Known about the structure:
Elements: H1 4-39, H2 46-53, H3 56-76, H4 85-91, H5 98-118, H6 120-130, H7 140-164, H8 172-208, E1 222-232, E2 237-246, E3 249-255, E4 264-271, E5 276-280, E6 288-292, E7 297-301, H9 305-312
Helix pairs in contact: 1-2, 1-3, 1-6, 1-7, 2-5, 4-8, 5-6, 5-7, 5-8, 7-8
Amino acid sequence: QEPEEKKIALELLETEQAYVNRLHLLDQVFYTELMKEAKAGKTVPEEVVKMIFSNISSIYQFHAEFFLPELQKRMEDWNHNPRIGDVIQKLAPFLKMYGEYVKNFDKAVELITAWSEKSPPFQDLIADIQKRKVCANLTLQHHMLEPVQRIPRYELLLKDYVRKLPPESPDRDDAEKALEMIFMVAKHSNAAITEMERLQNLWVVYQRLGLEDDIVDPSNELIKQGPIQKVSTRNNSTSEKYLFLFNNMLLYCVPKVIQVGAEFQVHLRMDVDGMKVRELNDTQFPHTFLVSGKQRTLELQARSGEEMNAWIK
């Protein structure tokens, strides 16, 4: 009966072997063949192929030439030296390479779809490779997802491994340290995705505002946006406006009637610094609140109590 921790270490080795085969397929088959056709000018620009596969070659070489052989040596020698923690510690810093691949993944899938429509020879070549036995009836996109899922897989296996280690195991310290390192890398790659999504959302907002120079700033954080009614006490009426609240400013906008380019026109910028917000108990206009800043004071009406509270918060 093998000890539990050895079973997990063997599972790590087996999944690593399968993973290297998958990376080989992506780098040495898909990437190489698509690149060859692109260079011959038959399918798509070379740049597109490079953008689809990002840094897959570096990832493949690292696993095939370093990590897998090291793991194999370890498992052959397990009876004399039952440990993998130190090998994984050596692996962990290199996993930061995944940040780039993971961040590029959605873009890569979009490019495959777009160019498959634009270039039938590109689509045919991919379909041809997908028919081969090595692809196991799975699409290129499916295979490309594998590196995205690999780091979380290491984390799960290693957590399990540390849990099953006997307290006196010579690998305990190293394995715990390795797990900590893998955990940090996983966080790093998730942070990269979150940051990318934040910038993507910000860019969409800037386009809706017509890319006004002084507003476009990548460090801004969009907190909330949505339609709002502006109450005019003078003539007892409300008019439709739209708010964008950032960490440093509130943009008070008017939807454009003729939507060419931007959707909104910025009527007023208010600094968040020194801003005060309070609820008003106005019987005529329910769910209203007052926003006063250095620039001016606005009386705004939300569609419901919940919405008003969300804005105030």
